[in-house]
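Worked Example 4.2. Read the sequence first, then its structure tokens.
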Amino acid sequence: ITIFPYTSYVGLKGEKGLTIYNKDFNVVDTNIKVGITPDAHDFIYFDDNHLIVCSYNGSKNITIRHSNESFTAVAQSLCIQEIKKIDGVWQEIASFNTNDYTALLTDGIHTKSPNIMIHWNTVQLDYDGNLIVNMRDMNCFWKIRRTVDSKGNVIIGSKTKDYNEAVIGSWWNIQFCFH
């Protein structure tokens, strides 16, 4: 199974969205999006009708406090969406947006930069079903709570946007290589 952004290559025309191909590269579904267009950089595939995808979702001015100093920076936003095809229509069943948890964007910043650039390198599920997100530009990993209740309702992060409830762990200044 491969997922590509529908208009990511020169010469392709059409709406932005993801396309799912089977092992023979026949199109299973195309123009997949819910609200915002996901990036095909990384995703979690449950089946042809259930995915977790990542995308940028605008920028926001945030205040950073470090070493008895405060300054404002423009932070990009990462949105993680769990989407499912229900009755033939793709729907968001859960989401997580870093704009709701700005401490994730400031915890690892130790310079007075006017912009906080974010880019996820990988997103995966751990053995307990939580999300592990590797943030390339921030040299860190985040462990984000993902729960499924007895009725099948999914929560990524916290219903109340509580940082301590949503973020299970974050590890900074991790040295890693990527291609």
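Now turn to a second chain, presented in exactly the same format:
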Amino acid sequence: DDSRVPLHLLRGQALWLRGDATQALAEVNIALDIAEAHPYGVVWGNYMAAWFYHMRGEEELMSSGCGRAIKAGVERGNLFFVSLAQFFNATRIEDPEERINTMRANHEITMATGARAGSSYLKGMMAEQLIEQDNLVEAENWLNDAFELIENQGERLWEGEVLRIQALLMCRQDESQESV
């Protein structure tokens, strides 16, 4: 497969985190164009693009990228990114219990493979869903796991996002204490 796919996608994420939304989107689009010709690249590329769209709050594009990653992964026997795409896509499930259970199940499948890159972001996403459902104790556990991964792996790329979600949790905890 073409190594330009992950390079453009990761550059797009870095540009996004730096605040250059226009150039970030251009890099993701370059990666997706290149990825179409490669069996692994098309799965990985669409999954990573879906992640990028999630960060941008573009849920329709995220869901579309997840759908393409899942379809290509199943068709081409590259199932690793299928559970990750299903994890992201689960954020669109309306029923909160089903959404959280689907995310949890796909997270477990991913972690069982030994994959850890980006896991702090996924744990943060899970915590955010739990905060929305006022399950603050479990949300705090997921965030603690995310911070532990950040410390143990040194993968600080997603630390800002995890800190943002921790701030949401702290606000919600304060609200809960005030109402008591």
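Notes for the reader: The mean pLDDT is 89. The first helix runs from residue 4 to 18.
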